[in-house]
UniProtKB/TrEMBL annotation:
This is EF-hand domain-containing protein. It holds the Pfam family EF-hand_7. Residues 1-27, 28-63, 65-96, 97-123 form the EF-hand domain. The keyword Metal-binding applies. InterPro entries: EF-hand-dom_pair, EF_Hand_1_Ca_BS, EF_hand_dom, EF_hand_pair_protein_CML-like. SUPFAM superfamilies: EF-hand (SSF47473). The lineage of its organism: Eukaryota, Cryptophyceae, Pyrenomonadales, Geminigeraceae, Guillardia. The keyword Signal does not apply. It comes from Guillardia theta (strain CCMP2712). Keywords: Calcium, Metal-binding, Repeat. GO terms for cellular component: organelle.
Amino acid sequence: FDGFDDDGSGQISAEELRKALRSLGVNVSVKEMNLLMKRFDHNGDQCIDFQEFEDMVKELIPPPEFDASFEKMDLNGDKTLDAEEIRLGLQELGIDMSEEHLKRVMAVADTSGDGTVDYDEFV
């Protein structure tokens, strides 16, 4: 989520979402973007917050895709992702992240506080 929130507002605008989808190889028309926003912007503020984003991802990305993404990012095969593995995985998707931004992502994703993101934290 943080990787797509370009302005750090805590919300993803329609333009930020469109850019994020493009970086993942998904091109959507203006009409399709409006439909996505209407469907997942539950509070009607014209932005996608973290919970709305989570709902959208869970609905649009099937669990096997999560499995494959996690396994691909887990370079050392230890069933967890450290900050470097996450940085490299996002970089492969065309998302360059500053060290500070990566620290914020890890702080949010690593709910156990052990310095890594396991599969349950990933999804």
